[in-house]
Amino acid sequence: MKTILQTTNLHLRNFNHSDLPNLIRLDSDPDVLRYISNGKIPSKKELEEVLKRIIEQYQKSDRYGLWACELRSTGEFIGWFHMRPYKEAPEEIELGYRLIQSVWGRGLATEGSMKLVERAFYEWKVPKVVAVTMRENFTSRRVMEKLGMTLEKNFIESRFPGANQNAVKYSLSINDFLRQHPKE
Length: 184
Hints:
CATH topology: Aminopeptidase
Mean pLDDT: 92
CATH architecture: 3-Layer(aba) Sandwich
Number of strands: 8
CATH class: Alpha Beta
Distance between the termini: 31 Å
Number of domains: 1
Shape: globular
Strand content: 25-35%
Largest sheet: 8 strands, mixed
């Protein structure tokens, strides 16, 4: 399994086919999916297809993808992080994450996201990192703000299920990031 990066508490690695039970466990919690699929649990077949696409993406890019996240202390799978070109503006890189409920509130989403943002700016020199969530997902919005991102726009996101499609897009440019985090 290819290690992508490590933080104080996290280990990010490529997914492999044996991770299907991990994805099923993660996506079987309606609270985890509350702001993603309105709590709708995907089928095993749907998750098999998702995992197949995740693994195929590694052949296309060693820079972008979706990576399994484990606790360094125990090796326990706790979710995933991703970096990928943003659909509406491919020159912008979209950050995302999904973690199991038992690790919420411990700063791990911020920790993993910051390491990926640092890599995007310091190593890949991307012009802008963005993140999108439902407007009412204040926990995720707080993570974005801790990263130094600012609210760029409110909009309707048709990919969000259900009646509430109110979304927000946060962004951080490389220049703003380097001002906030000068490399020593």
